[in-house]
């Protein structure tokens, strides 16, 4: 059994977000981190590894410096890493990215008892599209927004967290799961893991490696293969601080109703 | 000369800092206030390999290097001096002498539990009458009639990790007539009959760390627990303290850096005379001097750690690192309190704790005066 986890290196948007004059993200001026939701996927995979002895394979598409991030994931306990990197892949939107990642996952090979895991979404684009698109292209059943995963034989029981409640789904492997931060608390790199991580298997898949996959075609990868066109991008105005009313008594409720009525919300 | 860390060293520093900020910093004030040993932090550090950083995997260590260990103590101490010394005393004063002087059987018996952090280690050299003059050991070890066990009698004091440790490296006189050459080292388990610990010492700083007496009343220690050869104890103690000084120097380094970090944040916010404190030249010059001192300390500490890693003589380097880093940390933390003014003197801000914590680095594992003795003796000045 193996678990393939897709991870992305993203600019750290938790601090100050730098934007270029043309409205695109100024990645160079921001620290590069591993996408937070992807670390929840990594943690879920490592937890399953501890339970089942599964092999954990990390895949990322990005420029060569993304190796540093992959080594960090290896230092957390993953077994091997694959960086998908080529000029031809540059400028890909979610459609093209999922096309390329799906071909890379095909190359690694998805067998009957394998699982593919992704973070829900990346903090730079926030689309939450790549995971589900990979599942479609690989023909795998997908379960998104996993807040709890239990494995029993070839069946995963997954609690999906939705805006207004939970949904529990059973799915058989092979399948693809997208993970949210409520799923777990990602572990730290360990000292022993760090001193081993540069000795673990590390491969680079370039255009040559993947070009024979039917998914790879000049019209479906890179900038040319990306149907998304960005017309404009902007920083939304900051929302003001919310107002908190505390108390479960009638007076508080009346006060709340009064405020909402004054704002014509009710 | 290459001043760059390896990629693995850069990674461990990043991990230590994340861990310290997330897991250690939130507890620092509380464990100081309540004089509480942070066992939950030790358990977390154990899982991450931080209790056996530079020892081989064969014995359960993390397979890292000495500099990565020093950086661990440094990063922990930036936010909590107590947590820094727990790792330092465990690693340098208990794991290291067993690893460096133990037989293969002793290493296989004791190191896996210590290096994986399942057990905590401590070191018993200091006695009420034998502090800086460690040769004045009153604790005795006598072979019993069967010839199978040593019987230890005496008291050790100011033992870091004393009340929480399971395994102790302890020194005792096996032949008083031989002076220093009559001191031997033993590995003592908490469960050995006749061993007990005394009350917790109330201290000025590092108040979350456990400090207590070790009491030996006809304590039975199997003869196979003799560490090194009979009469080698003083030499083992001095070699162990050479390594320990790198840990304490790193603790001092972290405390100084942590205080600077706090002072930079505070002086950029605090406004007096309609200006931020950071806009006053006095603040700028103070912080420049403070940083320069700690940067110099860092070079000394890292150089000593790298020499130990390379098995080069490092006794003088460790003494210089500890002397300089400890005095710099005391000075820098005191200046940080001054920059904070009245708020710095309150427990609302961490710099008063850092100042209290820093003072001990000039005293334990060889006072600054002892470091000067070591350095001058290496210079051949008699």
- Summed over residues and divided by their number, the pLDDT of chain B gives a mean of 97
Helix content of chain B: 40-55%
- Give the strand order, joined by hyphens, for the main sheet of chain A: 9-8-7-10-6-1-4-5-11
Radius of gyration of chain A: 21 Å
Strand percent estimate of chain A: 15-25%
| Spatial strand order of the main sheet of chain B | 1-4-5-8
Output the radius of gyration of chain B. 21 Å
Shape of chain B: globular
N-to-C SSE series of chain A?
Answer: EEEHEHEHEHEEEEHEHH
Distance separating the two termini of chain A: 55 Å
How would you sum up this structure, described in words?
- The complex is a heterodimer of chains A (266) and B (382).
- With 266 residues, chain A is of the alpha/beta class.
- Chain A has helices at 36-52, 67-76, 94-108, 130-138, 191-196, 207-210, 250-262, and strands at residues 2-6, 9-11, 32-34, 55-61, 80-84, 115-119, 142-152, 155-162, 165-172, 175-179, 202-205.
- Chain A is 28% helix and 24% strand.
- In chain A, β4, α2 (67-76) and β5 (80-84) form a beta-alpha-beta unit.
- Chain B is globular and about 80 Å long.
- Chain B has 382 residues and is an alpha+beta fold.
- In chain B, 55% of the residues are buried.
- In chain B, the strands form three sheets. A four-stranded mixed sheet of chain B has the order 1-4-5-8.
- The A-B interface holds A 68, 71-72, 75, 188-198 and B 7-8, 11-12, 14-15, 18-19, 47-50, 53, 57, 61-64, 68, 72.
Give descriptors for this structure.
heterodimer; A: 266 residues; 28% helix; globular; B: 382 residues; alpha+beta; 4-stranded antiparallel β-sheet; 10 strands; 52% helix
Secondary-structure map:
The complex is a heterodimer of chains A (266) and B (382).
Chain A: E1 2-6, E2 9-11, E3 32-34, H1 36-52, E4 55-61, H2 67-76, E5 80-84, H3 94-108, E6 115-119, H4 130-138, E7 142-152, E8 155-162, E9 165-172, E10 175-179, H5 191-196, E11 202-205, H6 207-210, H7 250-262
Parallel strand pairs in A: 1-4, 1-6, 4-5, 5-11, 6-10, 7-10
Antiparallel strand pairs in A: 2-3, 7-8, 8-9
Helix pairs in contact in A: 3-4
Chain B: H1 7-34, H2 39-47, H3 66-79, H4 81-101, H5 104-115, E1 121-124, E2 140-143, E3 149-160, E4 167-173, E5 183-189, E6 195-200, E7 211-222, E8 226-227, H6 233-269, E9 271-272, E10 275-276, H7 281-309, H8 315-340, H9 351-360, H10 368-378
Parallel strand pairs in B: 1-4
Antiparallel strand pairs in B: 2-3, 3-7, 4-5, 5-8, 6-7, 9-10
Helix pairs in contact in B: 1-3, 3-4, 3-6, 3-7, 4-5, 4-6, 6-7, 6-8, 6-9, 7-8, 8-9, 8-10
């Amino acid at each position: 059994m193996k678990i393939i986890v897709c991870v992305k290196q993203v600019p750290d948007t938790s601090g100050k977000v730098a934007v270029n004059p043309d409205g695109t993200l100024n990645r160079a001026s921001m620290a590069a981190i591993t996408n937070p939701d992807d670390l929840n996927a990594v943690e879920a995979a490592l937890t399953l590894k501890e339970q089942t002895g599964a092999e954990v394979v990390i895949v990322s598409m990005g420029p060569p410096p993304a190796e540093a991030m992959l080594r960090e994931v290896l230092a957390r306990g993953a077994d091997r890493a694959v960086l998908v990197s080529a000029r031809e892949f540059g400028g890909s939107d979610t459609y093209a990215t999922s096309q390329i990642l799906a071909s890379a996952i095909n190359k690694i090979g998805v067998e009957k008892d394998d699982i593919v895991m992704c973070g829900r979404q990346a903090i730079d684009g926030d689309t939450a599209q790549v995971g589900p698109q990979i599942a479609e292209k690989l023909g795998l059943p997908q379960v998104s927004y996993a807040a709890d995963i239990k494995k029993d034989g070839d069946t995963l029981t997954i609690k999906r967290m939705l805006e207004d409640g939970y949904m529990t789904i059973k799915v058989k492997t092979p399948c693809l799961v997208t993970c949210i931060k409520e799923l777990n608390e990602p572990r730290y790199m360990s000292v022993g893991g760090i001193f081993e991580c540069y000795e673990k298997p590390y491969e680079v898949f370039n255009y040559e490696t993947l070009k024979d996959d039917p998914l790879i075609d000049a019209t479906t990868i890179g900038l040319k293969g990306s149907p998304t066109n960005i017309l404009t991008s902007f920083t939304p105005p900051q929302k003001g601080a919310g107002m908190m009313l505390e108390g479960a008594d009638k007076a508080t409720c009346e006060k709340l109703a009064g405020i909402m009525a004054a704002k014509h919300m009710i | 000369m290459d001043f760059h860390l390896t990629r693995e060293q850069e990674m461990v520093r990043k991990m230590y800092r994340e861990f310290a900020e997330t897991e250690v910093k939130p507890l620092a004030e509380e464990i100081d206030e309540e004089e509480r040993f942070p066992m939950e932090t030790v358990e977390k550090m154990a899982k991450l390999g931080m209790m056996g950083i530079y020892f081989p995997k064969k014995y359960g260590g993390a397979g890292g290097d000495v500099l990565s260990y020093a950086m661990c103590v440094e990063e922990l101490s930036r936010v909590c001096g107590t947590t820094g010394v727990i790792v330092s005393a465990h690693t340098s004063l208990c794991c290291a002498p067993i690893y460096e002087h133990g037989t293969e059987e002793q290493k296989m018996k004791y190191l896996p539990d210590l290096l994986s952090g399942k057990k905590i280690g401590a070191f018993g050299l200091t006695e009420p009458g034998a502090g800086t003059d460690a040769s004045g050991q009153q604790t005795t070890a006598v072979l019993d009639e069967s010839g199978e066990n040593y019987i230890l009698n005496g008291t050790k004091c100011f033992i870091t990790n004393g009340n929480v440790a399971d395994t102790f490296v302890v020194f005792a006189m096996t032949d008083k007539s031989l002076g220093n050459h009559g001191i031997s080292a033993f590995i003592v388990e908490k469960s050995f009959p006749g061993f007990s610990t005394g009350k917790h010492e109330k201290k000025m700083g590092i108040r979350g760390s456990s400090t207590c007496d070790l009491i030996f009343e006809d304590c039975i220690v199997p003869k196979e627990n003799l560490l090194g050869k009979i009469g080698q104890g003083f030499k083992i103690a001095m070699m162990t303290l050479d390594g320990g000084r790198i840990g304490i120097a790193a603790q001092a380094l972290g405390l100084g850096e942590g205080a600077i970090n706090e002072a930079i944040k505070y002086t950029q916010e605090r406004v007096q005379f309609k200006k931020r404190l950071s806009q006053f030249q006095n603040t700028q010059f103070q912080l420049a001097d403070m940083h320069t001192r700690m940067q110099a300390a860092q070079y000394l500490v890292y150089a000593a750690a790298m020499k130990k890693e390379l098995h080069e003589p490092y006794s003088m380097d460790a003494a210089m690192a500890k002397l300089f880093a400890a005095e710099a940390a005391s000075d820098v933390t005191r200046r940080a309190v001054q920059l904070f003014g009245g708020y710095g003197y309150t427990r609302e801000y961490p710099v008063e704790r850092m100042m209290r914590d820093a003072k001990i680095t000039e005293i334990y594992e060889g006072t600054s005066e002892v470091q000067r003795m070591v350095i001058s003796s290496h210079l051949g000045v008699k």
